[in-house]
C-alpha cells in the first residue's frame, strides 16, 4: 500500500524541507488541539468541587483565545506548504509527460491512443496530487495524531478505559486492508474505461462530418452510450467499495463510544476517574473519529494514487526508439544528402516498405518523388526526419551518418509539409508564425504570396486574425494546405519537404506555387512528392517508386524518353488536363 510513497521518493527527497516543515507544523497543530479538552475536563471538576473562581475562568477563556490564534496560524502554514507541494508534483509530472510526448515517435502513438493519454494527463495526475497532499495528511493523522490522542487518554485519564475503547481497532485494520485491495483493482479498470471513452469522444468530434455524411448519428450515439455505460458500471464498482468506508468507520467508532461511555461511567462511580475525566475522554474519542476515518481515506487514496502512478510511469518509462547517439558530430551546413542501399520495414511488419534505395542529392537540387499510392514516398521522408529506427543501409548529410547528428539539428534544417495538414486552434497569423515565432506581418504576407493565399486572406472575416477553429475546420482543404506551405516557407529551411502537399489545390494554383518555389529555393534543397507529375517536371532529378523500390530515375526529359511508367502516367494526366480544359 505504501509503495506509492517509495515510487515518489525522488520528489520527497527534492522537497524534503517543505514536507518536513509541513509535517512538523501539522503535528504541532494536532498537539495544540489536544489541550482544550483537558481544560474543559479540569473546569468541570472545578465546578463539581465548587472551587471555580472568576480569575481562573478568565484565565481559561484567554488561554482558549490564544490557542485558537496559534492553532489557526500553524494550520494555515502546514496546509499551504503541504498542498502547495502536491500542486508542484502535479506540475512536474505533467511537464515530464508533455516533454515525453514531444520526444515520442509514431510507434508510441500507434500503441497509446490519444484519449488514454489524455486520461493519464488529467484524472491520473489528480489522483497523484491527492496522494502527495491529502495522502500525507491522512498518513500523519491516522498514525501520529491517533497515537498522540491514545497516549494522552491513557496517561492522563485511564489505560484500562483507553484499551477497552480501542478494541474495535484491529477489526478495522483487517477490513480496511481488504477494501484497499479491491479499490486498487477496480480503480485501475475504471481509469482504463475512462481512457477508452475519451478516445471515442475524440474520434466522434473529429469525424463528425463523416458521421453526418453517412447518416451514422444514431449508431454513433449508441456506441457512445455503451461506452458511458461501461465507464459508469466500472465507477459504480469503485463507488460501492468507497461507500463501505464511512459506514464501517462509524460502526467501529460508535462501538468505541459505547464502550467508553459505559465502562467510563462505571469507573466514575468507582471513583477511579473524575466526571471531568470522563467528559474529556469522550471528547478525545470524538477527536479519534477523524484519525480512524483517515485510515480508510489513506488506504483509498494510496491505492488510487498507486494505480494512477503506475499508469503514468508506464507511459514515462516507454523508451523512445529514436534518440540521439552518445557521441554526436557537428555538421555546419547541408552540402549533400545521400541514401545508400536503404532498406526499411515498419515495426510489426515483415514486408519491406523501402528496398535498396540509393540516392545522392546535392545542395540546391530539387528532387521529385513519384509513384503509386503506397509506393513508399512518405516513408522515405519519415526516415530523413528520423521518425523511425531500424533501417539498414545509411542516410548521411554532408557525409556524416544521420544517426550521429542530433535530432534537434536535423529537424532545424527541415521544413516539412505532410499530406495531412495540422492546423492549431489559433489565428492564421499564429499558425504561420509557428515556423518563425518573431515573423512580422510583412514577412507573413510575403510567404502567403508564395503560397498563393493572398486572395483567400482578403475574403476571410478578420484577415490574419481569423480563428481557424480546431484542426482548421473553418478552412477548406486547399486553404489548409496553403497555410501549411506558408508556415514552411517562412522558416526558409535548408531542406524543404513537400509530401503531396498540393493535392487539394487546382493545377493552375499549383503551377504558380511551383514557379514561386523555383525562384525562392535557389541554392537550397527541395523534395517534392506528388501524384500530379506536373509538380515535379522542373526537378533536377526524379525517382519513380514502386513497392518501395526505385524503378525509374532521371530528369523529366530522360524519363519521358525511357518510355516507362512515368511517361505513361504523364501522358494520361496531360490528356485528363486537356479534357478538363476543353470542357
Give a short summary of the structure.
With 583 residues, the protein is α/β, with parallel strands linked by helices. The chain has 2 domains: 3-316, ABC transporter transmembrane region fold (Up-down Bundle); 336-582, 3-Layer(aba) Sandwich (Rossmann fold).
Strand content: 5-15%
Average predicted local confidence, pLDDT? 87
**What is the alpha-carbon Rg in Å?**
35 Å
- What is the CA-CA span between the terminal residues? 76 Å
The CATH class name of the largest domain reads: Mainly Alpha
Low-confidence stretches: 579-583
Number of extended strands: 10
Strand numbers in spatial order across the main sheet: 6-7-8-3-9-10
Q: Write down the overall geometry.
A: elongated
DSSP helix fraction: 55-70%
Query: How many structural domains does the protein architecture include?
Result: 2
Sketch the major β-sheet: 6 strands, mixed
Based on secondary structure, the structural category is alpha/beta
Q: Which CATH-level-2 architecture of the largest domain?
A: Up-down Bundle
Keywords: ATP-binding, Cell membrane, Membrane, Nucleotide-binding, Transmembrane, Transmembrane helix, Transport
Domain ABC transporter: 337-572
Domain ABC transmembrane type-1: 21-304
Pfam families: ABC_membrane, ABC_tran
Amino acid at each position: 500500500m505504501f509503495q506509492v510513497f517509495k515510487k515518489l521518493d525522488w520528489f520527497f527527497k527534492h522537497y524534503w524541507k517543505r514536507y518536513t516543515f509541513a509535517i512538523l507544523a501539522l503535528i504541532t497543530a494536532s498537539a495544540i488541539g489536544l489541550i482544550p479538552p483537558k481544560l474543559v475536563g479540569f473546569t468541570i471538576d472545578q465546578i463539581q468541587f465548587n472551587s471555580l473562581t472568576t480569575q481562573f475562568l478568565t484565565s481559561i477563556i484567554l488561554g482558549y483565545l490564544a490557542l485558537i490564534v496559534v492553532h489557526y496560524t500553524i494550520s494555515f502554514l502546514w496546509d499551504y506548504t503541504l498542498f502547495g507541494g502536491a500542486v508542484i508534483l502535479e506540475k512536474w509530472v505533467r511537464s515530464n509527460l508533455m516533454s515525453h510526448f514531444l520526444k515520442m515517435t509514431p510507434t508510441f502513438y500507434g500503441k497509446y491512443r490519444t484519449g488514454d493519454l489524455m486520461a493519464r494527463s488529467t484524472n491520473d495526475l489528480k489522483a497523484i496530487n491527492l496522494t502527495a497532499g491529502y495522502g500525507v495528511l491522512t498518513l500523519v493523522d491516522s498514525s501520529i495524531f491517533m497515537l498522540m490522542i491514545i497516549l494522552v487518554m491513557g496517561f492522563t485519564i485511564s489505560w484500562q478505559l483507553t484499551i477497552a475503547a480501542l478494541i474495535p481497532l484491529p477489526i478495522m485494520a483487517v477490513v480496511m486492508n481488504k477494501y484497499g485491495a479491491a479499490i486498487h483493482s477496480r480503480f485501475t479498470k475504471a481509469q482504463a474505461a475512462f481512457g477508452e471513452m475519451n478516445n471515442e469522444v475524440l474520434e466522434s468530434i473529429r469525424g463528425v462530418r463523416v458521421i453526418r455524411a453517412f447518416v451514422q448519428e444514431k449508431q454513433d450515439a449508441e456506441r457512445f452510450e455503451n461506452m458511458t455505460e461501461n465507464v459508469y458500471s466500472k465507477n459504480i464498482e469503485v463507488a460501492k467499495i468507497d461507500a463501505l468506508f464511512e459506514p464501517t468507520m462509524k460502526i467501529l467508532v460508535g462501538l468505541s463510544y459505547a464502550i467508553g461511555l459505559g465502562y467510563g461511567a462505571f469507573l466514575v462511580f468507582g471513583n477511579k476517574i473524575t466526571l471531568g475525566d470522563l467528559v474529556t475522554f469522550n471528547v478525545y474519542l470524538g477527536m479519534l473519529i477523524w484519525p480512524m476515518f483517515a485510515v480508510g481515506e489513506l488506504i483509498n487514496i494510496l491505492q488510487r494514487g498507486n494505480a494512477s502512478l503506475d499508469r503514468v510511469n508506464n507511459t514515462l518509462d516507454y523508451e523512445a526508439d529514436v534518440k540521439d547517439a552518445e557521441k554526436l558530430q557537428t555538421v555546419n551546413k547541408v552540402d549533400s544528402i545521400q541514401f545508400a542501399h536503404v532498406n526499411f520495414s515498419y515495426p510489426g511488419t515483415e514486408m519491406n516498405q523501402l528496398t535498396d534505395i540509393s540516392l545522392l542529392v546535392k545542395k540546391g537540387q530539387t528532387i521529385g518523388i513519384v509513384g503509386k499510392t503506397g509506393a513508399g514516398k512518405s516513408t522515405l521522408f519519415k526516415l530523413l526526419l528520423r521518425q523511425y529506427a531500424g533501417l539498414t543501409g545509411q542516410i548521411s548529410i554532408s557525409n556524416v551518418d544521420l544517426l550521429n547528428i542530433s535530432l534537434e539539428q536535423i529537424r532545424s534544417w527541415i521544413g516539412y509539409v505532410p499530406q495531412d495538414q495540422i492546423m492549431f486552434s489559433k489565428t492564421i497569423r499564429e499558425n504561420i508564425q509557428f515556423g518563425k515565432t518573431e515573423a512580422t506581418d510583412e514577412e507573413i504576407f510575403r510567404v502567403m504570396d508564395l503560397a498563393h493565399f493572398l486572395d483567400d486572406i482578403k475574403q476571410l472575416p478578420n484577415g490574419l486574425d481569423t480563428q481557424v477553429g480546431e484542426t482548421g475546420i473553418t478552412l477548406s482543404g486547399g486553404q489548409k494546405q496553403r497555410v501549411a506551405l506558408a508556415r514552411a516557407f517562412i522558416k526558409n529551411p535548408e531542406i524543404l519537404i513537400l509530401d503531396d502537399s498540393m493535392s487539394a489545390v487546382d493545377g493552375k494554383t499549383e503551377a504558380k506555387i511551383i514557379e514561386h518555389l523555383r525562384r525562392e529555393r535557389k541554392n537550397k534543397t527541395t523534395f517534392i512528392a506528388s501524384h500530379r507529375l506536373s509538380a515535379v517536371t522542373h526537378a533536377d532529378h526524379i525517382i519513380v517508386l514502386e513497392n518501395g523500390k526505385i524503378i525509374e530515375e532521371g530528369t523529366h526529359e530522360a524519363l519521358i524518353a525511357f518510355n516507362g511508367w512515368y511517361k505513361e502516367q504523364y501522358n494520361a494526366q496531360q490528356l485528363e488536363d486537356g479534357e478538363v480544359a476543353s470542357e
